[in-house]
Batch of 2 targets.
Target 1
Amino acid sequence: MRFSRRIIFLKIKAKLTSFKGFLALFLVSLLSVLSLNGCSFKAGDDLTLQVGITNWPGYDVVLYAQAAGLFENRGLDVKLVRFSNPQDAARALLRGSIDASFMNLSVAMQADPGNDSPVFIMVADTSYGSDGIVAQSEIHTVEDLKGKRVAAKLGAANHLILLEALQANQIKPEEVAIENVSNEIAQQLMETGKVDAAATWEPLLSQIKQATDGNIIHTTKDVDTLVIDGLASRSAVVVKKKEAFKRFILAWFDLMQVIAEEPDKVFVDVAAQLGQSADSFARDYAGLKPGDIAMNQRMLPGGRLQEAAQQLKQLLSADSRHSRVLRDDFATNSKPVVAAIELGKS
């Protein structure tokens, strides 16, 4: 009896020793993967993010990052939450329903009050021709807009596009009448000749030009634009989830590299998810400057984003027709981008 118990004990001990060896090997492998990903895991790190997204090619490319496992490769669990418009996404963010959201700089600066203050932590893209002003056939320059009626949603990106075009051509905002309508209504007003021009973005910009035989008299290529898109969060969440945001930005830079090297790979995948042609999506994205490492180095640590926020505030303050309240507590935070760039170098 004692001999058989001895044999059983030795077998159990051997299995335990084998299991411990397997466990040790597993932990070493896991640490190696984390090291290769440039991430250091700490107990208690929350590596999940709920991120808001609206329809815009500069944001939609993130669908590829999720489908291709770029977030997973960085040890991050990301849930994308789709919103019908940027204002709803901003409200959800500041009321605590999501951790972050892609949004335009102007939207973040005009977001409704919530539980915390908005913080811009990464630039996703800047407009480079995707946004502009299309005018009726008899109007050829921005200077021709004096005394004319322009369709533009007050306080939205359309309004900003118009204001920076007017400023670049030394025209005061009050010298142009604004029809405060959505993009869809602006298209109808242009096609029926009820407005002289419309501030909008692609593909509507080109569609209206073709339908009216009109002229595109200004695009964001003509200025160092304030139409800047990026990732915003709340100040408390940026601190609480700094590791998660660092990993998200690393995955975003991975995505930017794929777009730089194999753009068709991304455009085909995203277009299929959105139910549109790859050529159409590629054309829309071509009007943007991607938010890669170089872009973020210029925008955040260098201070261009903060400078742009001040310029945007001055532009919108000079035209009170939008009646929106610009937030005094808006801020930028370059720490997540700087941390991601440093890890990417290692």
Target 2
Amino acid sequence: MSKKVVVIGGGFGGLAAAARLAARGHEVHLYDKRDQLGGRAYQYEINGFHFDGGPTVITAPHLFDDIFAAAGRRREDYFTLLPLDPLYRFFDQEGRCFNYWRGLDETAQEVARYNPDDAERYRAMLEHIRHIFDTFQPYSDKPLTTLGQMMTIMPDMVRLQAFMNTDWFIERYLKDPFLRKVFTFHPLLIGGNPLDTPAIYTLIMQFEKQWGVFYPQGGTGAIVRGFEKLLRELGVHIHLQREVAQIVIQNHKATGIRLDGGEEVKADAVVCNGDLPFVYKHLISAAHRRRFTDRKVDRMNYSMSLLVIYFGTKKRYLDSPLAHHNIIVNSRFRGWLKDIFRHATLPEDFSLYVHMPSRSDDSISPPGHENFYALVPVPDMRASIKWEQVGPLLRDKALAFLEEHYLPDLRANIVALHHIDPTHFRHTLNSQYGAAFSLRPTLLQSANFRPHCQSEEFDNLYFVGAGTHPGAGVPSVLSSGKIAADLIG
């Protein structure tokens, strides 16, 4: 039976859920507070440059394909995905690079350049990770809502040591200090601390090995535009610049939403792509909540935040050692992680992720120009940092570092510059404490222990996005959209 469904938020989770629900014949209304869809994948246009606001690593393209196929369409008719190899290029403090290839043999050869003995241990590690992937990946698009389901997977968690932290897991196999950093970084892609993120999340490596890493022609914004075209074809009512002020609860059921101007919209189901902790604390009255009280929300473990710098240059840097995706790790890696996650202090040093999409696509910059995105992990807003002062200083420090080591005369050639910091995640994206990836993927915030896609407190309320099962990262967020749509029917 057709239902009227309200979707709050136009990030990838909301877009995926809206498309699947509309393809099943439901009447779908999508509300977003910003002037365009995308959520964290919002695309900025500055002086002729197109900068992707958020996710830049796209893997598991079949998850996109399935959404369009469910609507009787071909994803390729809406946007193009270009395969990348190497998947990433890592740099140590001396500027030596490590190419992380999709192929096992090619990456093992790179490992051998640093430590020949680690090459075979790397193969053994990947075989272990493949077993983790084969065992747990099937649960990534299914609701885990009961203790019985959790008990079913616990023996495998123990057998595969998937409950141990990622740092321990990698150190068990690899001996070279730099290689340990290279293969420990993946939890940071989903907001996790490698020192406490369980090794079950190493399955991300197998995602990349099995399905590759891709770049969408035109940037991640092209995916959002492809989704918007699909939704309009399916009859989804898209309401931009309409902020939701409240989820209306009656008799422990979500019955609709109230917009910022006071207008109430009735619905048979509400799908929320807003940050789950923020939603419980700010969009649902405390008088209705028993489980997700303010105290519980405040005490949950949150991801780090980010300073993200978008900059365009009036020259090309084709002779730079930088590839499309680059990760520059510092020598004090564990201490740096502890500063951010445990001590909530801003380190003096930093590690950087640098995205250079114009390596693969010159359409996102004016002719003869280069497009960059640099990401610096930082503490969330529970740290006492005055970002209006610190943000520009850290931005300039990162740009100076890149100029000294990778991009000569960078600052003299910048013609487009923008940055966001934790205040953006808090106030623009409504993320609790400005956490860039919502809830941290700890052992007790994973699988059944993570908030469920179907609200544990209220009927007819569903969650998609980084804060719910299966977690952060584009594949997980898309899967949450499938779970919510399947639950609604």
